[in-house]
Each structure stands twice: as C-alpha cells, then as structure tokens.
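REVIEWER CHECKLIST
Item 1: Sequence provided? yes
Item 2: Single chain? yes
Item 3: Sequence as submitted:
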Amino acid sequence: MPKAPPPDDSVPESSHPSRRTFGRIAYGAIALAAIGTATTYSVKAASAKGDLSSNLTLIAPAGAGGGWDGFARETQQAMRVDRLANNAQVVNIPGAGGTIGLGKFSTMHGQADTILATGTAMVGGIALNKSPVGFDNTTLLARVAEDYDVLIAAADSPHNTIDDVIGAWKKDPKGFVWTGGSAGSVDHLTIAQLALLGGISASDITYIPKSGGGEAIQTLLSGTTDFASCGFNEVSDQIEAGRVKAIGVAAPKRIKGFDDVPTMSEQGYKVTLTNWRGWLGAPDITGDESAQLLDVLTKTRDSAAWKDALDRNKWTDVWQTGEEFAEFIKEDTSRVEKLLKELGL
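Item 4: Structure as written out by the authors:
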C-alpha cells in the first residue's frame, strides 16, 4: 500500500493518512465486508498457516494492573468464556507510553498469532518519545472501546462547576496544582485542552504526575494538589463513596449510574480527547490472516462476556476498522501532537 508523506497544516482533511499514522490497514476488513457476516466466514476455514484462534498472544504494552493490562485481560477472558480463542495468553511489555512494546512488535514480521493493544497513550508516546516506529510498522485491526477522564476535587472543595474551576484558575494559573497520570498522558492532555478552552495558557499548568487514580486521590485529600483528571473507572468507587467530588466528565453524555455528574460539554467546555483502546496486528501479515484476527475480535466484541466488561469498566463501544480506523488515527495524532506542543513537551 502506498504511503503518503507526513502531514502538515497545509494538508487538507481529505488527504490520505500520513506515513507514520496510517499504518497498514487490515485487509481483512475488506475481506469480511465482501463475504458478509461471520456465519459465512469461519475462523476454522483457516489459511495454510493454520487456525489463529488456536493460540493467540495478546501483548499489553504496559505493566500489570494498568489500563492496557486490564483491557488485554478483559479481552482474554471474553475469548475464553465464549471459546473464541483456545489458548489466549497475555504478555506485558511495559515502558515509554507503549513504545517499548511497539518497538518489539514492529520486528515480528508475519507473526499473525500475536496482537498488540494500542490507544491514546501510544499516540502520545510515539510523539513524546520521538519513536522511530509508528502505526505504519503494524497492521491496523480495530478500535474497540474508550473511557473518559473525569475532573475531581476533594469532597470539601468550594468548587462545584467547571466555571468555578476556570474562574479560580485564571486568578492564579501557576498556583493551581493539578495531578493525574504520567506527563503527556490522557489525564495531562485533558487538562491542557480544558485550559485552552478556558483561555489559560497550557504552559502555565502546574502538574504533578502520579501512577494512577489512587495516588492522585491521596494528593487531593492531603491538600498537596487542588484538582485531578483521572480515568472515570479508576475513581468511580471513590466518587460513589463521597471521598472526592466529580465536577465534570469528558464524555459525550453522562455516565450510566452517575447521572448527577454533568459532562464538560454540558458546562460549555467541549473536551474531545478520549482514552481509546484497540488492537494492532503484526507487520506483513496476509489479508487472510487479518481477516481471521478481525473475525475473532468481532466475535469477542459481540459476546455477552465483553458487553459485561464494558458495563463493569464504564467503557464505551467505539468499534472501527479499515479506512475509518486509519482516518481516526490520523485525526487523533494531529490532536495529541498539538496539545503536546502547547504543553511544551
């Protein structure tokens, strides 16, 4: 597949995705569309290289207990419950926003029985770490699910709305202390986007990175920080228990079960960044192998076990494949790179 040069501000939106972000679209998406539903295409009608569902390795490019690890293990469990993959195994390769795992994965040419979890953090990791490899060194399979950040404060905070936060923040931009995940993470970028929408320079943000929602909450309760941006599923139990106050969620609509927490958009601040997750195939796999992998992933996504995982983790289904997924990668990369530049990273 021909690859276009890297995009710049002069490239129109209708242009093909850039060389770095486009990747190699899973030709399986075209194959599945041509032959119709999964009932007319079975993974058991395997290629000469065998049935990929018999042994499948899922790489989580992060440590145990992290977001990608949870996503990979929920996928593994759904595959096992519905017997969609006979021997699905999860392997962790942590580091550098997923780019350590991506770098190793990019050398697995033709290794169709291995897939790599990806998402917003990897988009940021590629840009932040100036990674020599990107999505074009893989085969794009599917964007699967996303979750949303929520802005939280200590339960006794005097601030109850985004307007309250922005008003106080403008009075002392650098004196307001924020926390969330690592520098350049979705948490950090969400705060940056909110700052820009509120007329505050992203370079004025004072941000203390933490390893997760639990640590972020401790800084709020101790008074070390004023506000946090965290994944909703990381802190939902603490919101429910009343330990922290949810001021706004960066979602298109309110989260089920937390109907009293307004979205940021409802409050006039359209924060569009989401923490999406999906799957990549190895470079140089065949169209038939792509089709097999997409068939397994499609059946997993449609399973009752996966629907339960979506509900438990407060994830939203955002299934995309083929050209649609490639175009999304292009747009997300542009958005993330712009925010990182605003932050001076």
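Item 5: Key structural point noted by reviewer: The longest helix spans residues 322-342.
Item 6: Recommendation: ____
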